[in-house]
Amino acid sequence: MEAQYYRAMTENLEEIEQAGILENKKIFLFGHCHATEKLADLLLGKGYAVSAILDNNAVKHGNEYRGIVIQAPQEIIREAGEDVIVCIAARAYAAMTEQLRRLGFQGMIRKLVDYNSYADYSLSEETINCMTLRRQGGEILFSGLKKKYPDCFRILCPFAALGDIYIMMSYLPHFLSKRGIDKCVVGVIGNACAQVVRLFGFYPVEVLSQKDMDEMIQAALYEQDADTYIPHQDRPYVVKLSNALYIKPITLEQMYCCGVFGLPADTKPCEPVNFSDSADLDRIRDGKAVIFSPYAKSVTSFPEAVWEQIVACCTDRGYQCFTNVAGEEKPLPGTEAISPRIAEMKSVVERAGTFVGIRSGLCDVIRSVNARKIALYPDYNYSDTKWKAIDIYALAGWENIVRKEDGTWERR
Amino acid sequence: MYGLIQDLLLKYDKVFFVTKLFPQKEWDCFCSEFSKWTNRKAFFLLEEGIACPNNFHSFVISHKEAEECYKLYLTYEFSNRFITLADFKQYGTLFHYIETGILTEEEAIRAMLA
């Protein structure tokens, strides 16, 4: 979960706590995802009991997170509405609220973090006016972008995820060629995504906030602008590619190649070209070090003891151990912190010789690196589908290993 | 128009808004697959000029109303149960999966109905 959203969630929770809203209430959470687990952690940390996590994915029912059972949303109607609060920290807040109301739930529902500015499930005059103003704000931003890059096709990336941007960029040249487009500007959220774009060449990049990107995309959609493309597999709401996962598993690579860009399935992805050497290479023992990457924004992390065990195993074998950290992240015990820029990751991992990381977008960034690469997967389902994350995210040429619920490891 | 959409969303599980931009071949396939999809209530808002089987709950709207409806859909997500069928050029669609052999036509329609 991104730091800004975590902060907002913490503040919102404190606000409802101070207003006495949680007092004597049975607390339910809706949507089992990384953010919901973080919310559960916060609530448990404050001494609240969480009755259950509601989730639409039948595969998850009966599982537990820190002793909190995951159950079907229908279970909520057994509860007396006035004694219950449902807290939501998921992108589908509007849809979840509507679902609970349609089930007949009359109790309180609270949004703890605002992930999705596109949705407001109401057709009231007030909502329509408000969303029209939002779109009009986007039109001003969009017009500014068009003026700044007058001869460029516009690629607007709606989500700040390194892996998505990496795979998108690796197929973008084929898409541009198919459409006969010479020049394009790539709009992204945040500097890390801009760094990923630059790995693939000297594209003009426009770095935007999430809010500005959402509004600009809304304007581009409304104007049906033929010179703009939104290359993502499930954002914004108009994109329905992820529905295909209810029918069959489709790898992330195929989603971008075939679904997002409509390119033939055998299209060869382009390789990044703009890597550079880290100034830290002298710190790393050549071929006798491991770079650990235990943190991911949207993936549940492993218990610390798991990492400690892996680090101990590497240390015992004489490996020098590093943890790739950003911002306030702490290195794993027994490892040194290292913070290469995205363009420097290749040099760092190739120097070390081994990379061990939770399957995050960083794994995509170094997918072509010449080293031993191990991607670790928590045993969770991809979104609300019946497929495991590894079915969608497995990386060719890597050792892909799942940590099962019972703590055992399974190689794929 | 907004009132009509609101009423339909209250009464039906899904509301399909079918524009004249939606390719005829896919619409024919959609109608055939939809007939097998019997466990939910659905309503079809059809832009004039589009026909559907007699057993579908449907209503024909004018081009002007369809334009209004489409603009509303492109202003914000007011429901995840309001599905617009058109021919989108600005982003990936399930039809890309058909063109590239990942899904059959039937599978893509079933995905749309999921």
Comma- or semicolon-separated keywords:
heterodimer, A: 412 residues, alpha/beta, Rossmann fold, 3 domains, seven-stranded mixed sheet, six-stranded mixed sheet, 12 helices, 17 strands, globular, B: 114 residues, 5 helices, 17% strand
What is the total domain count of chain A?
3
Per DSSP, the total helix count of chain A is 12
Radius of gyration of chain A: 22 Å
Physical arrangement of strands within the biggest beta sheet of chain B? 3-2-1-4
Query: Please, how many helices of chain B?
Result: 5
Structural classification of chain B: alpha/beta
Largest sheet of chain B: 4 strands, parallel
Mean pLDDT of chain A: 94
Count of discrete domains of chain B: 1
**Low-confidence runs of chain A (pLDDT<50, min 5 residues)?**
none
Task: Report, as a whole number of angstroms, the end-to-end distance of chain B.
Answer: 26 Å
Q: Secondary-structure element sequence of chain A?
A: HEHEEEEHEHEHEHEHEHEHEEHEHEHEE
Order of helices and strands of chain B: HEHEEHEHH
Strand content of chain B: 15-25%
Morphology call of chain B = globular
